Recover the amino acids of this structure.
């Protein structure tokens, strides 16, 4: 049985959905002020694996993940670039979708944009206002956290510490330091919508509360996101949704760990910020995915050139072994069981990958090809597809030179070039369809 670590209880719990065979899952999607970075890759792959594994287990999964296409960061970025907000968000949304696809992430069943649900967000703020959770100050409508007795339950913090009284300078008129904006009044020139409180735009947290309610209904089975979203974003989502709708927001809260670059937290200010596209220049999406899967999702994971190289070598070796497998029509139950055992243990993907390797190295093991196919439904590593290996231009040029030599029947030169290619780390074979090049695995 699948066990998931639930942030709400800080425990690994057996997963039981509300409806027997269905799972309602909501994962906070990206804010499209910029192109996706490796932190997005890790989060996307984590929840893609969870979703795929639930499908593998036979659940009908309804997976919703939003696009935040209006917020302060977007307004700021559009201003910096002197670009229209719509064109900026459209461009970046496309970049997110393309890069997620490249790393094997399946498209969500529904992918709502925040700007399409402003009406629902206003309705939600109205309910909160009616129930007495809100107050208005000069820049917007705020949520008063001291009115919600469960505030802090997700991040396991004491509400008294989050209320006023702490020696932290708070915004002049805010009642508690963690009170947050539900509806932000717009300044001239900013995008705005009409509301009972005047022209403005939704706060970030209200977006997810309104969209998860509109598209899935409460409670959700699983709500997910990166660990950095746990507080305040998810805590605030709970405060809004549970106060307004009188129902639990989600039964299981799943958070993935953060990503380091060369053992240092990735951030723009540190200059070690890497986009998915940067990495895709040298490594395929499956290699990025293989690297992500080699760490359990809750643990901090590291990205570095050396680790990417290791992942590349392992992945290429894996592909080469699988490429030579013959289909005996069987499936290997023993290894499938071990694989499931690993996945059931809070998605222990490194262990699951180990089981795959173990099976491939086990000479007596029958049913290898079918078992790879079964496991790859979850891994999503394209293990059975022929890889379009990216060959460096230098090698391509040598291959062309050799072709010319062969046409001129200069066999000596052709052999010499083949040797040069080998020294540079690639094996060249002549096939009926032309030259085939494979990197020599280390
Ligand atoms: Zn969210």
């Amino acid at each position: 049985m699948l066990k998931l670590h639930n942030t709400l209880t800080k425990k690994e719990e057996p997963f039981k959905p509300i409806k027997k065979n269905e799972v309602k899952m909501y994962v906070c999607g990206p804010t499209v002020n910029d192109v996706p970075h490796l932190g997005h890759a890790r989060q996307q792959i984590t929840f893609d694996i969870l979703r795929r594994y639930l499908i593998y287990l036979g659940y009908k999964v309804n997976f919703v993940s939003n696009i935040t296409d209006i917020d302060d960061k977007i307004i700021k970025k559009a201003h910096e670039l002197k670009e229209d907000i719509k064109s900026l968000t459209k461009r970046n949304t496309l970049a997110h979708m393309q890069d997620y696809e490249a790393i094997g992430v399946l498209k969500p069943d529904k992918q709502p944009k925040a700007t399409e649900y402003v009406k629902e967000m206003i309705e939600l703020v109205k309910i909160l206002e009616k129930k007495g959770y809100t107050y208005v100050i000069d820049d917007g409508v705020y949520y008063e956290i001291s009115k919600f007795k469960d505030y802090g339950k997700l991040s396991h913090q004491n509400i008294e510490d989050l209320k006023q009284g702490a020696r932290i300078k708070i915004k002049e008129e805010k009642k508690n330091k963690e009170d947050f904006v539900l509806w932000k009044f717009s300044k001239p020139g900013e995008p705005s919508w009409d509301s009972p409180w005047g022209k403005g735009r939704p706060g970030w947290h209200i977006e997810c509360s309104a969209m998860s309610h509109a598209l899935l209904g409460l409670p959700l089975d699983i709500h997910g996101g990166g660990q950095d979203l746990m507080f305040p974003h998810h805590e605030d989502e709970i405060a809004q949704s549970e106060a307004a709708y009188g129902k639990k927001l989600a039964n299981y809260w799943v958070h993935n760990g953060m990503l380091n670059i060369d053992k240092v937290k990735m951030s723009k200010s540190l200059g070690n910020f890497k986009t998915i596209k940067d990495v895709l220049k040298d490594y395929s999406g499956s290699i990025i995915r293989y690297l992500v899967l080699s760490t359990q999702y809750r643990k901090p994971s590291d990205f570095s050139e050396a680790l990417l190289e290791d992942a590349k070598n392992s992945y290429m070796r894996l592909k080469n072994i699988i490429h030579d497998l013959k289909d005996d029509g069987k499936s290997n139950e023993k290894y499938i069981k071990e694989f499931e055992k690993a996945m059931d243990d809070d998605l222990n993907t490194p262990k699951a990958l180990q089981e795959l390797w173990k099976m491939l190295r086990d000479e007596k093991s029958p049913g290898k090809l079918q078992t790879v196919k079964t496991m790859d439904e979850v891994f999503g590593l394209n293990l059975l597809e022929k890889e379009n290996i990216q060959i460096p231009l230098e090698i391509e040029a040598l291959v062309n030179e050799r072709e010319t030599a062969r046409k001129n029947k200069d066999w000596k030169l052709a052999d010499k070039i083949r040797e040069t290619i080998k020294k540079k780390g690639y094996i060249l074979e002549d096939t009926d369809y032309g030259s085939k090049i494979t990197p020599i695995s280390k």
